[in-house]
Amino acid sequence: MPTLATLATPAVLLDRQKLAANIRGMQAVCDEHGVELRPHIKTHKMVAVARQQLAAGARGLTCAKLGEAEAMLPSGVRSLFVAHSLVDPGSAPRIAALADQLDDFRVAVTSEAHAEALVRLAAAVGRKLGVMVAVDSGLGREGVRDAGAAGRIVTRLARCAQLEVRGLYTHEGHFYGIPHDQLAARAAELVDRLCALRDSIDPALAVWPGCSVSARLIALASAGRVQAVRPGVYMFGDLSLTRTTGVMQSEDVALHVLATVVDKPEPGLALIDAGSKTFSSDRTPDGISALAADGRDLAVMRVNEEHGYVRGSAVDALQIGERVIFTPAHVCTVVNLTDRVVVTEAGQPVDTWRVEARGRSQ
Ligand SMILES: Cc1ncc(COP(=O)(O)O)c(C=O)c1O
To answer: Is 82's pLDDT higher than 90?
Structure first.
């Protein structure tokens, strides 16, 4: 195995101990409050990580795409939810195959318009499928906008023998923009709202909210009313969870990018060999693609495909050829850009893991 000093860069590093601690930490909160953990695998896309989540007690996995779901089967998962608006009749054989290989396979219905498409798709699948009804809780993406629409969807799907409504879910992605001191109250409000909606339709339905910003707070506020949460980023972490929302400590982040300083073309600027093809183009709300993980004032403020522009008070002390470890702004898009991650222990490479579901966006 190469060392951190000899590894080809840019490289994506995954700290094994921190990963395990983050998986255990979220599972412990969920277990304590009687809420199932159904992690969204779109962040890690790796069978090895899914296996660890399941071994720690995760009840099932969540995916965005059928390709991700297929890629996760070797993890031994038995319960899987595809939280996306499936519409393509051509995908029916793949859905049937997934349903045949799992104990519990659920799909999403995301609006009244989508319900019609899902009914047509289910007829082509020819299997009984569990359905979770999406509720828009403020992101303004998929999900019913009011209780009337939710009720009409449940009534509509009740006439379809292949579809069985099992619960409600929401992705409260707008929580990434809520000030830290308001998060707990907003999570408690969200739980109240979703549970009231559920009780107005059918108290036997499950309620599955919970992203990485809100999952712990929702478990705390659940009081037996919420059945599962589906966070994705929590086991790696990134600047969205540390700097932007403050729900994670920087020292707990498990995934980083190792980059090399390749040029210092003018005072106050260093160029590294990692750009948008490593960090993606996602940035924090204050315009940062990545920050030095060791606390030095080094920020990637701009990216081209293979260059990162590093600014900050520590830039002029950098040497060409020096290696710097960065915490990316958004980890999901970083992982989706790499075939393999380098697993580290005590800061040194010990293994490489393949990102099996990388690019499985169909
Ligand atoms: C439907 C759905 N569920 C769960 C998640 C997980 O959220 P996070 O990555 O913020 O933990 C996402 C993230 O995009 C999502 O779209």
So the answer is: yes
> Cβ < 6 Å from ligand 1: which residues?
40, 43, 62, 83, 171, 173, 211-212, 230-233
pTM for the complete prediction? Answer: 0.97
Domain span including residue 190: 17-236
With tokens 């995916």, the residue in question is: 63
> How many structural domains comprise the chain?
2
pLDDT computed for residue 1 by the predictor: 85
Instruction: With residue 324 as reference, give the H or E element that holds it.
Output: strand 323-328
List of residues 6+ apart from 58 with CB closer than 8 A: 27, 36, 37, 38, 39
Residue 5 domain flag: no
pLDDT tens readout for residues 2-26: 999 999 999 999 999 999 999 999 9
Furthest CA-CA distance within the chain: 69
Which residues neighbour 75 within 8 Å (Cβ) at sequence distance 6 or greater?
Answer: 47, 50, 51, 54, 61
Query: What is the C-alpha separation between 111 and 84, in angstroms, rounded?
Result: 11
User: What distance in Å separates the CA atoms of residue 292 and residue 308, rounded to the nearest whole number?
Assistant: 12
From 40, 194, 218, the mutation candidate for ligand 1 (largest count of ligand atoms within 8 A of CB) is: 40
Residues 33 and 160 in one domain: yes
Q: How far is the CA of 37 from the centre of ligand 1 (A)?
A: 13
pLDDT at 141: 98
